[in-house]
Specification:
Layout (H helix, E strand, L loop, with lengths): L2 H138 L2 H19 L7 E3 L3 E3 L2 E3 L3 E4 L5 E5 L5 H8 L3 H25 L11 E4 L3 H10 L3 H7 L2 E4 L1 H79 L24 H7 L1
Parallel strand pairs: 5-6, 6-7
Antiparallel strand pairs: 1-4, 2-3, 4-5
């Protein structure tokens, strides 16, 4: 019996171990299955995770690219805005420059139109001047016309000098010299007597031809002829005897209305002035002629002052005499007033002694007066005396 229970226990133990082994095998199988399932699931999950990771990487790449594009767009937008801000003054300057250019274009067009009209006017004036110059040259070819033109120039100088025609100078005066008569163009009277004779005719042909030619040698030859013509004209004036009249100084003036007429001749003949002086002829240009005329006008002013000096002295003496007479009359009036004041004061004293004293006695006796009687006051102002001899004493 003892053995049977042990066997039974062993059998039970074996059965129990068998059951444990089966359970363990089942558990191990289940664990292996779970592990294998987990491995399979892990592998499947790993494949899905790898795919998802790849998709995530691609998504991140796309997102990064999109973000980069967005950043680039934002940068471009910011740069564009900044560039727009920077270009705003440039745009305004360009607009201002455009407006200024348009205005300058309009002004240039206006100026060109004005310049065109002015050039046209200058051309017309030049043509008119050329015609007038030609006419003047042809007119000056005549000696009489040259004399008239010289007279006109000389008259302008006479007006500037302050001399008056008919008073200080005359035109076309005639001087008798025996049986012949000379006729200077202008006669200028000198203060205190005498007169200066002026001839306004001058040689011009050779000078004009010399100015018109472009040939240097011909021009020099014509200028030499011009100097010779001036000397010849001086000889003609000397032969007329203008300076021999008693009222004329020892020279006659040959007036040259252009400074260059004399300077050009002096370039060719440096002794021309001495040669003309020897013939009692003075060559005068507008500058020297105006100086001569103003000197004569100054002489007239001094003569006027000298002529008026005696009249001023006589008028002053007469005025002093009249002042002395007025002073005497004034002194007589003072004496009369002084005598009247003395008589008045004497009357006041007598009135006070004779009339007012009696009036006061009658008032004291009860006689009523309709009006109050007052005694007049004396004049105590002393009149200032005037001595007619004081003026004569001051003069002494």
């Amino acid at each position: 019996m003892g053995i049977a229970p042990n066997l039974l226990s062993v059998s039970r133990m074996r059965h129990h171990r068998g059951m444990e082994s089966g359970v363990l095998a089942a558990v191990v199988g289940l664990a292996i299955g779970l592990v294998l399932g987990a491995v399979a699931a892990g592998m499947s999950a790993s494949r899905r995770t790898s795919q998802e990771r790849e998709r995530a990487v691609r998504a991140e790449t796309l997102l990064a690219a999109a973000q980069a594009e967005v950043d680039a767009s934002r940068a471009q937008i910011s740069a564009g805005a900044a560039m727009a801000d920077l270009l705003t003054p440039v745009r305004e300057s360009l607009e201002s420059l455009r407006r200024a250019s348009d205005s300058a274009s309009r002004d240039r067009a206006t100026a060109e139109a004005t310049l065109t009209s002015q050039i046209s006017a200058v051309q017309q004036r030049y043509q008119s001047l050329e015609v007038a110059t030609t006419q003047l040259a042809s007119a000056l070819a005549k000696g009489q016309t040259r004399g008239q033109w010289g007279e006109m120039q000389l008259e302008g100088l006479l007006e500037h000098s302050g001399l008056v025609e008919g008073v200080h100078f005359t035109r076309q005066g005639t001087r008798q010299d025996g049986e012949s008569a000379t006729r200077p163009d202008i006669v200028v009277r000198l203060p205190g007597g005498g007169e200066v004779l002026v001839d306004a005719k001058f040689p011009f042909d050779a000078y004009w031809k010399a100015c018109a030619t472009g040939d240097v040698a011909l021009r020099e030859e014509l200028m030499r002829k011009h100097a010779a013509d001036l000397l010849l004209r001086a000889r003609e004036l000397s032969a007329k005897g203008y300076s021999d009249t008693p009222t004329s100084p020892d020279f006659v003036v040959m007036f040259l209305p252009l400074e260059s007429l004399l300077s050009a001749a002096l370039d060719m003949d440096g002794l021309l002035l001495e040669k003309t002086f020897e013939r009692k002829v003075v060559l005068a240009t507008p500058t020297s002629m105006l100086a001569l005329l103003r000197t004569i006008a100054f002489g007239y002013q001094r003569q006027l002052m000298a002529d008026n000096a005696e009249e001023i002295r006589a008028a002053g003496a007469e005025m002093l005499t009249r002042l002395s007479t007025l002073s005497e009359h004034l002194d007589g009036m003072r004496r009369g007033l002084d005598q009247a004041v003395r008589g008045y004061n004497a009357f006041v004293g007598s009135f006070d002694r004779q009339a007012m004293r009696q009036a006061r006695r009658m008032r004291d006796m009860g006689v009523d007066a309709p009006k109050t009687i007052t005694s007049p006051t004396e004049i105590d102002i002393e009149l200032r005396a005037s001595d007619p001899a004081a003026l004569r004493e001051d003069d002494a």
